[in-house]
Amino acid sequence: MALPPGARLRTWLDRLQETGRLALTERGVDLRFGVAGVANRLDGTQATLFPKPGGHPVPVVSGLLSQRGWMAEAAGVAEPDLVGRFQQACREPVPSAPVTDGACQEVVHTDVDLARLLPLPTHNEHDHGAYLTAGLLITRDRETGTQNVSIHRLQVSGPDRLGALLLPRHTLAFFRNRERFGEDLDVAIVIGADPLTLMASQAAVPLGQDELEISGALRGEPLPVVRCLDSDIMVPADAEIVLEGKLLADVREPEGPFGEFPQYYGQRADRHVIALSTVTHRRDPLFHTIVGGGREHLLLGCIPREGSFLSELRRNFPCVTGVHLSLGGTCRYHLYVQVDGPAPGEAKNVLLAALAVHYDVKHVTVVDADVDVTDPTEVEWAVATRFQADRDLVVVQGTQGSKLDPSTVDGVGARLGFDATVPAGAEPMRFLRIRVPGEDDLDIGTLTSPAPASWRDAVR
Questions:
Q1: Cα(35)–Cα(54) distance, rounded to whole angstroms?
Q2: pLDDT at site 305
Q3: Alpha-carbon distances, residue 256 vs 165, 265, 269, 270, 343 (angstroms)
Q4: Residue 347 to residues 96, 168, 201, 226, 364: CA-CA distances in angstroms?
Q5: DSSP-derived pairing of the beta strands 412-419 and 363-368
């Protein structure tokens, strides 16, 4: 069986090039703002390949997954089936396949100087400096042997030193288990992973589930992995670049500011530190960067979360038929939930569960099955015509939210829910949507044509 198009980074670039979705820049685009500026201008229309950025020999790629349709294509499914495919992959992970040799280890450097080895872009105006933004941070629990894969912003703080923002997720849980004994935590940072592994890294799954096995499920076969040189961490064997090192116990250093997904800057503060020991890469590697706040940044975390959220909600509420994280809500803060035939009062129970499904979720809107949950205009229409604030508004104060939301106080804020479903017991005609019978069956191409210049004569 053929692998999905997104199972390998380089074949995905081939696919984008063949379909007119890969732009090649002139050589030498500036790493400071130039790479990000071009990528932003092409955001959502074309991925970008930058040869010799800033004169560096390693090319940069960006914008690999900046449309929902591209993500579905990478997974080998139709766009409406993408969330379901991701759900299935989370439910039925495929164990990875260890190999002894990986392309990611063709070249080995133990004298680590990041600026010499890698092209390091600076994205937004007030970013502290260069960041690694598309690196999969892989950690391993020493007691259980389970791995975790996630993406964190990584500030280049020195030749072999990175500042890391660790939010209260699984990486931080693994690290705290070691730091309480005064021990460092082994880490590997994978740059230039295939699109399916990038997507899998963002799955909201229980602690201890290795996201690389979700990547294997999306591929339809085990993901080849190779052991790191300095630790027992297993990394994708076909990746472009791997940085090996340790999260340092009891060490915090200034990190930030950095332009984040809410379109604001994450502020400077003392944060975790990674010391690097080894860099390995392909003979001619590619460096993937994700521009902070761009569509790739937003959507990469969106689809996997939608799949995870839908599974979680349907486990307790079979009436839930769809979910959507809107682009206007930064693909994190605004969650739309579709229900079909909820029992009286059940829509509010769904709403409360959705508010608790992840700390990033700030506002939830629940709509009926006749509302397209993927269309913000449709959802807004449901709020406009089916919602009354004194009856349908839910406010929960003092909850843990996103620390990157500038309207919170250190991540603590309120959550808001809108029950925009038809009230139970409403008269059938009161909320019946208007429709023109047979409209969807009309063959518009046959019935119409462009109006001629002499349109006045045509209607006589």
A1: 9
A2: 86
A3: 9, 8, 7, 9, 48
A4: 40, 29, 31, 47, 11
A5: parallel
* Residue listed under structure tokens 């970008």: 48
Which residues share a beta bridge with 212?
A: none
Q: What is the pLDDT of residues 216-247, one digit of tens each?
A: 999 999 999 999 999 999 999 999 999 999 99
Question: 315 — phi, psi (to 5°)?
Answer: -60, -35
Mean pLDDT of the chain: 94
Mean pLDDT of 142-171: 93
Q: What angle do CA 225, 226, 228 make, to 5 degrees?
A: 130
User: Dihedral (C-alpha) 244, 247, 253, 259: value to the nearest 10 degrees?
Assistant: 70
Do residues 21 and 92 make contact, with C-beta atoms less than 8 angstroms apart?
A: no
CB within 8 Å of 173: residues ≥ 6 apart: 207
Q: pLDDT by residue (tens digit) across 192-201?
A: 999 999 999 9
Q: What is the pLDDT of residue 142?
A: 86
What crossing angle do the helices spanning 82-91 and 68-75 adopt, rounded to 10°?
50
pTM comes to 0.88
Q: What is the pLDDT of residue 301?
A: 82
Helix (H, G, I), strand (E, B) or coil at 200: helix
55: which DSSP letter? G
For the CA atoms of 326, 290, 269, 202, the dihedral, rounded to the nearest 10 degrees, stands at 60
- Residue 281 backbone dihedrals phi, psi, to 5 degrees: -165, 170
Q: How far apart are CA 351 and CA 365, in angstroms?
A: 7
Report the C-alpha dihedral over residues 42, 191, 357, 389, rounded to 10 degrees: -20
Cα 434 to Cα 244: distance, rounded to the nearest angstrom: 60
Structure tokens at 322: 């769809």
- Residue 340 φ then ψ, to 5°: -125, 110
